[in-house]
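WARN no homologs supplied; continuing
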Amino acid sequence: MNELNELQDIWQTGTNKAKQFSSGTVSESLIEKLKTLESSQTRINRLKIFILIMIFSQMVYWLNRLNAGTIWMYGGLGVIFTGVTVFMLYYMRNQFNIKKLNFTAPSDVFMDEAAHMLEKQNSIFKVPFLLFSACLLIGANIMAIGFSSTHENKFRMHMIYSFLLVVSTFWGHRIRMWRIRKEVTPLLDELKTLKENLKAE
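OK structure emitted
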């Protein structure tokens, strides 16, 4: 709680207070940009969680309503739910969190910590995202087993589910890369420039 109060004090008192913790090279505008990034991501994550809860609730409801809740359907849904939950928990744990930054550290240390946190967040959408996508694909194909008793229909469902998931995860990844270039890369570049200027002084 003390850390939160200290952080709020830094934001409220402006540039002079910011200079005290970072020898004057980390501007108030940069801190505000980092704060804005975190706030934006928090709002998006809340929306994602709400949408996911609605999707899973509707899926369970209609499986029960249509009497389609076979062991394969619930098994596949369980795999998907587990994959989504683990990925979201991992994502939120490794997401940029300004409260974890040491505002009393020297400027170069502060900038290194901020850059490391941003790069750590970006790395979520490399191997972890691929594993998450594979989990969704496996879960969807397990669910497809329970849809029909005929081999032809099962094969068609596997193809449809796999195609839709590959396309959706591909575009989801592309959108995230666009957001990284738009929201995160400029901050990393600014931190790099500030650090180079600090070394040149």
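Residues 151-200 form the longest helix (50 residues).
OK
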